[in-house]
Amino acid sequence: MFQLDKAFYGLKQAPRAWYERLSKFLIDNGFQRGKVDNILFVKSKGEHLLIIQVYVDDIIFGTINSDLCDEFSKLMRSEFEMSTMEELNFFLGLQIKQTSNGTMTHQQKYVKELIKWFGMESTNLIETSDHLSFDQVGCG
Questions:
Q1: Of 137, 74, 78, 71, residue with least CA distance to 104
Q2: Which terminal Cβ of the chain has fewer Cβ within 10 Å, N or C?
Q3: Hey, CA dihedral for 130, 128, 91, 13, is it positive or negative?
Q4: CA-to-CA distance for 79 and 50, rounded, in angstroms?
Q5: From CA 1, how far away is CA 15, in angstroms rounded?
Q6: Nearest to 88 by CA among 3, 6, 22, 10
Q7: What one-character-per-residue DSSP string does 54-101 give?
Q8: What is the pLDDT of residues 108-128, one digit of tens each?
């Protein structure tokens, strides 16, 4: 994950200007913008894909090929002042945990904040569900 160190903060059109600058740079460097989600960019190299998701000044990217990650990191640093974050743990209110079994998302922190907000810290919690499979949520 990347985060922009210097941005156009304070300007009304800052997010749009940043997105236009970034998307032009990515397209000029061989990425294709998503047809449905225009903040998603994809670049294929052989049998591997590099997937990039942009949200304001955060860029999440991933691939199973670590060389593509390194290549993308160098490309971005050649053009922008950016800091590299480590493994993604939190994004848009979702907590993200990566394990050998896959990537899981949850909102445990949000739920705890809600419980505290409503003064229900002493309430007994019970588990309501086992883990959902792709078939249970209609994916697959």
A1: 137
A2: C
A3: positive
A4: 18
A5: 18
A6: 3
A7: EETTEEEEE-S-HHHHHHHHHHHHHHS-EEE--S--EETTEEEEEETT
A8: 888 888 888 988 888 776 776
pTM over 0.85: no
Coil, strand or helix: which one is 105?
Answer: strand
The segments of the chain whose pLDDT lies below 70 read 1-13, 84-86, 125, 128-140
End-to-end alpha-carbon separation of the chain, Å? Answer: 27
Phi, psi of 112 (to 5 degrees): -65, -40
Distance of CA 123 to the CA centre of its chain: 33
